[in-house]
Amino acid sequence: MDERVLEALARDRTIDITTTGAKGGGPQRIEIWTWMADGVVYLTGSPGRRDWYANLKANPEFTLHVKRGLQLDLPARARTIEDPAERRDVLTRVLGGSYDLEAWVAGSPLVEVEFS
């Protein structure tokens, strides 16, 4: 991954993603935050069901839109993280101590972004 892109995502975590709908198959664009740890980009959110996560589980190819700074549309693939030990490790690194880790491990969507 280009260092300029990682720096842009570290500066401003607010991005958009365009996924393919799990049910209807059409494009779905939403605003979301990126989370970074050790040069790896993740998508997650507070515990609960999320349509974007269902879309990525059904169709892992998506577009990540950097909206500020570089303003890029990057093809990407989502690797869902469902193993509890890996979830705990990743969420510990991205969240720090400012969230209820156990609730996030148990019920938050979590994907690693793999850039094409």
Description:
Helices cover 31% and strands 38% of the residues. With 116 residues, it is α+β, with helices and mostly antiparallel strands. It has a six-stranded antiparallel β-barrel. Helix 3 packs across helix 4. The termini are close together. 25% of the residues are buried.
- What is the tally of helical segments? 4
Shape: globular
Tell how many strands the DSSP assignment holds. 6
Question: How much strand?
Answer: 35-45%
Order of adjacent strands in the largest pleated sheet: 1-2-3-6-5-4
How far is it from the N-terminal to the C-terminal residue, by CA? 9 Å
As residue ranges, the low-confidence spans are none
Order of helices and strands: HEEEHEEHHE
Helix content: 25-40%
Radius of gyration: 14 Å
Sheet with the most strands, sense and barrel status: 6 strands, antiparallel, barrel
**Secondary-structure-derived class:** alpha+beta
The chain-level mean pLDDT equals 93
Throw out a few tags for this protein.
six-stranded antiparallel barrel; 38% strand; alpha+beta; 116 residues; 4 helices; globular
What layout of secondary structure does this protein have?
Blueprint: H1 3-11, E1 14-20, E2 27-37, E3 40-44, H2 51-58, E4 61-66, E5 72-80, H3 84-95, H4 101-107, E6 110-115
Antiparallel strand pairs: 1-2, 1-4, 2-3, 3-6, 4-5, 5-6
Helix pairs in contact: 3-4
In short:
The chain is an alpha+beta fold and about 120 residues long.
